[in-house]
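Before the break, one more example. Copy the sequence into your notebook; we will annotate it together after we see the structure.
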Amino acid sequence: MSKLKENYKDSASQKFSDFMTGDLEIPDSPPARKKPDKQDKIVDADEFFSEFTISDDIQRRELYQAFRHRRFVKHASKLYSIMSAVIGLIIIVILLITVAYLPKFGNKSNPDNNIVSQRYIENGLEETGAVNIVSGMILDYRAFDTFGESNVLFIACCCVLILLRNDDDEPKPDEDVIDFKRDIILEKAAKFLVPVILVFGIYVVLNGHLSPGGGFSGGAIMGAGLILFANAYGFERMERLFSYGTFKKITFGALLFYGLAKSYSFFTGANHLHSIIPLGTPGAILSSGLILYLNICVGLVVACTMYGFFALFKRGRI
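Here is what the structure looks like once it is written out:
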């Protein structure tokens, strides 16, 4: 999590925010530049900017204000505001038009009150290969919705990372983390419970197509195990198991595989083509086509998101 700094008002993010909202103070005229005399030394551009990077903040502010004074920057700011309003209005209109085509809520003749539910119950096992009808529904019939939900979790975690991540080059020691205290009882309990929780979470994920469970519930269990480990042993030891690089690779890889896998399924289904992915024998662990693998992807994203939120709000590291 980013530290609170006394000079936050002079930070780049605050300057950009003031620049976009028009609150940045603009001088009446750009700072006058001294004309070089014949005897003045001509400084190379690279040398000038290398000296400028080590100068004080006053010079940076003056140069930034002079840049802000230019007309095209003002026009760009106005254009940005107009385009934001236009794009927002377009999205609202598209959503309203879409809602207008939806069937009336509560009507007995709606497909979701008869045809859809009947299709799930009667043909779900044959068409998806999943014994658990719920998993077959959310990861096959409505896999696109589930993919959107997983992306929402990922985007939410990215937003929290932008706001709260600690950007220091050197990581904070555990003694500087709020509310971190070594507890021998918690450490001994976590030493026994964390492996059990993680194994149980993996079991729930892998059996989601056979029994109640799946990626969301199993991922929440695994995330709880990671949180318990971080509480017991601190974020420094936790980084050996789960670092920021691990978070990026797992979430990106899981969402990429999910998108590619379901793109293939959507393409073959929409064009009535035969899928080369077998459904397997219902009731076997390796069955139900892609549902098992999609459950794994969803579980990884949920576990990473849960632990990421905890670590960032706890002023830990990720």
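The chain is about 65% helix and 0% strand. The two ends are 9 Å apart (CA to CA). Try to locate both features in your own notes.
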